Amino acid sequence: PEKCVVEINFLTKPEQTDEYFMNWIKEIAKKIYLKGEVNVKVKEPRYYGYITSEDSDIVLAFKKAFEEEYGFKPKIGFKATITDGNIIAMGGRKPLIVYGLKGGNAHMANEYLEISSISKTCNIYVKTMKNYFNIN
Predict the structure, then answer these.
(1) Which of 34, 50, 51, 88 could form a disulfide with 29 if both were Cys (CB 3.0 to 4.6 A apart)?
(2) Cα gap 14→67, rounded to integer Å
């Protein structure tokens, strides 16, 4: 063909730059002896990866709220996914956590939420903000 357009969606680690991936794709094109011109660009909006420190004020406020509500410590982890949080966190410049209702089949057929989790989740949101802003 005269022209071929390929769009690739990457979930990146915070330390991996746009330049890293653009160069990586160009190197692959060289290795497979791709003929023609290869242009690589980042399509906006760009959802940068981020990591929020477990010692950040928002995480500490959340942990306290969760433990008050459930009576045990939350499991803190890393999730390779894209959410609105990637934009809000601005590549890690703003501390952010993602926590929500219990449920399953997110973003697919038969997605559901457990009604019984609404009250506890709302309580955790309120307590987290009270802890974060030192409101009694």
Answers:
(1) 34
(2) 29
In this structure, what are the phi and psi dihedrals at residue 29, rounded to the nearest 5 degrees?
Answer: -60, -40
Sign of the four-CA dihedral 24, 27, 32, 36: positive
The mean pLDDT of 13-39, rounded to a whole number, is: 89
3-class DSSP state for residue 59?
helix
Whether 90 shows a pLDDT value over 90: the answer reads: no
Region class of 36: left (phi > 0), else alpha (psi between -120 and 50), else beta: left
**DSSP code string of 79-136:** -----THHHHTGGGTS--------EESTTSTT-EE-TTHHHHHHHHHHHHHHHHTT--
Report yes or no: 47 and 82 within 8 Å, Cβ to Cβ: yes
Q: Please calculate the CA angle 100-120-79 and round it to the nearest 5 degrees.
A: 25
Contact 73, 63 (CB under 8 A): yes
